[in-house]
Each structure stands twice: as structure tokens, then as C-alpha cells.
Design a protein that fits this description.
With 383 residues, this protein is an alpha/beta fold. It contains 13 helices and 15 strands. It has helices at residues 19-33, 58-65, 84-94, 116-130, 185-195, 213-230, 241-250, 256-275, 294-301, 317-327, 330-333, 355-362, 367-376; strands at 2-9, 40-44, 47-51, 71-81, 99-107, 134-136, 143-149, 154-158, 162-163, 175-179, 199-206, 234-239, 279-281, 308-309, 379-382. The structure holds adenosine-5'-triphosphate and magnesium ion.
């Protein structure tokens, strides 16, 4: 008898001929998620089994698996020989000793000599003999003992299912570059794209010394939290200090934010090309702040050719906060450090900036030189 964690996968099985590819990537992602923990991964039809791990690591393994996209559900269980005595030995350990219960059997191996009903009845009967305070209730039992008869003379026995993260395995849907601030929205945007299978690389702009080390640390912490889902363990940082100073010194104050955002997009596009990312991802949501009006979004889009994905565009703040809480980034996101967008924030930012006015103001700057200078400040933080 062996202790295992059973993982069932989600949408992957829909992918027809590409199924083999999706399964391979999914298996790799499980490996990555369990890095540093002793274990083995076995694939059986429609399931992965984690085996050979230290018992005290069970909770940590389950915690990590709960964040791997493509996982439909998972269970702690026992792998045994599929003869009746073997199954009963495991059922005894999984079953409660009192209360109501039922046994539910699934037969993956259709050549097994007993039907599912017969297996449930036999094991259920033996459990009742063994634990006299147990009662059968097939409709609303307090506990269920699940038996899954597998091929190759084996069976899985377990007592519960935990819902997984669903979605698609990351790295099956291209690569995007997420502009990550220290705020609530951008980590949620990254989470959502990763959930659809995208590899999400991270880029953060800082304005040191106007923004401080703590602000940067906060983004590193957010990136780490996000990496449980994205499996990407590096963050690129770029300084936009000089760009902000130049904008502040030369251009109309109400365009500060719009102009800065255009620089961010230009720099992001350059870095996207270098890392092979096919799109930019932001946490923008329509109308949330002055720069996220249709005109604001258009002004930033105008300087890049790559598509800009904004998974939160139609979300209310409350909806975003709910996801941030669920994925564990909310607390860090709400720590009170300044983001570069808030440095030099004008009293009245332009809400409907006109492209002709933006371009006129931008002509006062040496755009290429500022972009190059910012790119040369790039740092890569691995965690
Ligand atoms: P967030 O909660 O993600 O900070 P926000 O509501 O504060 O978003 P803005 O500050 O206008 O909105 O930023 C909009 C988007 O621009 C962010 O979601 C993020 O994708 C990107 N962004 C903003 N500031 C930075 C930054 N310092 N570095 C990288 N990307 C940024
Ligand atoms: Mg922000």
C-alpha cells in the first residue's frame, strides 16, 4: 500500500490530437511546482499520481498543486493491489469509524470480475462489520469512501476531492510580458492570463530614488506570490526616473501620466521582443483612473505594434479585489508604498488626451535616447 496524491486534469482532455503535448507540458509544470520536494510523478490514464514523498510534506504538496493550472481536482489517497483484501485494507484507513457513509466505486478496468455496485457492497459490508458505529446512507452520507479500480491490477482509495485551479497548463498559450506595478490589479491580470495557459514574464518600472527599496521589495514579493501560478521566477526592473524628470520639466503637466505610460509601453515592447513575448499584459480596467479612458488606452496602444491584453478591462474594482484575495496577493498589494505613477502626479490629469496634443508635447523630448537609457538600467531579479 502506498500513499499517493491523485491529480485529475481539467480542460486538457478537450484538445484532441494535441492531447499528448498538453499532458507533457502539464507534467512538466507539476514537476516545476514541486521543485525542492522529494517525489515521483506517474501518469496513469487521465490522472497523475504523486508518490514517494515524505508524509510531512503532504500539505505543502497539496498547497502547491492547488495553484497549478489545468488541475481539475486532487485527492490524498492510497494506491493498492486491486484484489478485495487490498482494497479493503485501504478502505479501512480512509473510512470514518462512526457516522454515516457510502462507498462509491469507479471501474477504470472494465475487465475486473466484479461490477462497481458489487465492489461497493462488499467493501461497505466489511466496513460495517469492522466499525459497528458506522451506518450506511447512500443519499446524504457524511463520508464517502471512493474506490477507483485502475488498470494493471491496482486501485486507488480516497475519501475526498479538492477542487483545483482549473484553466490550461501554463506555457501552452504563448508568452506575454506583464507590466506589474505594486498595485492590486496587475497581479490579478497576470494570474488570469496564466490561467489561460500563457507564460507571464514580469516587468516593473521604478523611479528610484523617488520610489524606495521597500516599494521594489513589495513588487518582488508580489512576483513570488504570482510565480506559484505562473511558474516564472524572474522579474525585470527598469528605471523611469530620468524619463519622469524630463516629462515633468518639459511637457504639459496634465499629460504627465499619459506620456509616462507611452514610454512604459515602448520600453515594454522592446523587452518583449528580447524575451520572445508576443503581447503586453496590463491590469487596466476601463474608466478606473484618468489614464484608463478609451482615449488614454488608445494613446498607449498607438506607440506599440504588439497586442496589449487587458484581462480586467470590464471588471469592477470589487471583482478584482475578490480575485486578489483569493490568490493571496491582496495583502501585499495594499501595503502603502509609492508607485512611480504617483510620483509627479498632476492635480488634473488629462482624461481625454488628444493624440495630436500628446505628439506635440512629446516632440520636446528625445524619445529614442530616453528609451535606450532606460533599457540600459535594466536589472533581472531571480527568486
Ligand atoms: P495596479 O493596481 O495594477 O497598480 P492601477 O489601478 O494602480 O493598477 P495604474 O497605476 O494606472 O493603475 O496602472 C495601470 C497598469 O499599468 C497597471 O495595472 C500595470 O499593468 C501598469 N503599471 C502601472 N505602474 C507600473 C509600474 N510601476 N511598473 C509596471 N507596470 C505598471
Ligand atoms: Mg498602480
Amino acid at each position: 500500500m502506498e500513499k499517493v496524491i491523485i491529480i485529475r486534469y481539467a480542460e486538457i482532455h478537450l484538445k484532441g490530437k494535441n492531447r499528448g503535448y498538453f499532458e507533457r507540458v502539464f507534467g512538466n509544470n507539476l514537476e516545476k511546482a514541486l521543485k525542492g520536494i522529494r517525489h515521483e510523478i506517474h501518469r496513469t490514464s487521465g490522472r497523475y499520481l504523486i508518490a514517494e514523498f515524505d508524509e510531512e510534506m503532504t500539505d505543502e504538496i497539496m498547497r502547491r498543486i492547488s495553484k497549478v493550472f489545468g488541475v481539475h481536482s486532487y485527492s490524498e489517497g492510497l494506491l493498492v493491489e486491486n484484489d478485495e483484501d487490498g482494497v479493503f485494507a485501504a478502505a479501512k484507513l480512509v473510512a470514518p469509524q462512526s457516522g454515516t457513509f457510502k462507498v462509491e466505486t469507479h471501474r477504470g478496468d472494465k475487465h475486473y470480475p466484479l461490477t462497481s455496485m458489487e465492489i461497493s457492497a462488499r467493501i461497505g459490508g466489511r466496513l460495517l462489520d469492522r466499525f459497528p458505529s458506522l451506518k450506511v446512507d447512500v443519499h446524504t452520507p457524511e463520508h464517502t469512501v471512493y474506490i477507483d479500480i485502475r488498470e494493471g491490477g491496482r486501485a486507488l482509495v480516497f475519501g475526498s476531492f479538492t477542487d483545483g485551479s482549473h484553466g490550461m497548463p501554463v506555457s501552452t498559450a504563448g508568452k506575454g510580458l506583464l507590466l506589474i506595478s505594486g498595485g492590486i490589479d496587475s497581479p490579478v491580470a497576470g494570474y488570469m492570463m496564466a490561467k489561460r495557459g500563457m507564460t507571464v514574464e514580469l516587468l516593473h518600472f521604478h523611479s528610484y530614488p523617488y520610489t524606495n527599496e521597500a516599494a521594489k521589495e513589495k513588487v518582488v514579493t508580489l512576483s513570488k506570490l504570482l510565480s506559484d501560478y505562473t511558474l516564472v521566477t524572474r522579474l525585470t526592473t527598469v528605471s523611469v526616473t530620468h524619463i519622469q524628470e524630463e516629462i515633468h520639466r518639459n511637457c504639459a503637466a496634465e499629460l504627465n501620466v499619459t506620456l509616462l505610460r507611452r514610454f512604459m509601453f515602448r520600453i515594454a515592447e522592446r523587452l518583449a521582443h528580447q524575451t520572445g513575448a508576443g503581447c503586453l499584459v496590463t491590469g487596466e480596467s476601463l474608466g478606473q483612473v484618468a489614464s484608463q479612458t478609451l482615449e488614454g488606452l488608445t494613446a498607449s496602444n498607438a506607440v506599440v505594434r504588439l497586442p496589449v491584453l487587458r484581462p480586467l478591462i470590464g471588471f469592477d474594482k470589487e471583482d478584482i479585489v475578490e480575485v486578489a484575495k483569493k490568490i493571496g496577493t491582496f495583502e501585499t498589494s495594499t501595503l502603502p508604498y509609492e508607485d512611480c505613477c504617483t510620483v509627479f502626479l498632476p492635480d488634473f490629469p488629462a482624461i481625454h488626451p488628444k493624440l495630436s496634443f500628446i505628439e506635440e508635447e512629446e516632440r520636446k523630448l528625445d524619445i529614442d535616447a530616453l528609451v535606450e537609457e532606460a533599457l540600459s538600467s535594466r536589472e533581472i531579479i531571480k527568486f
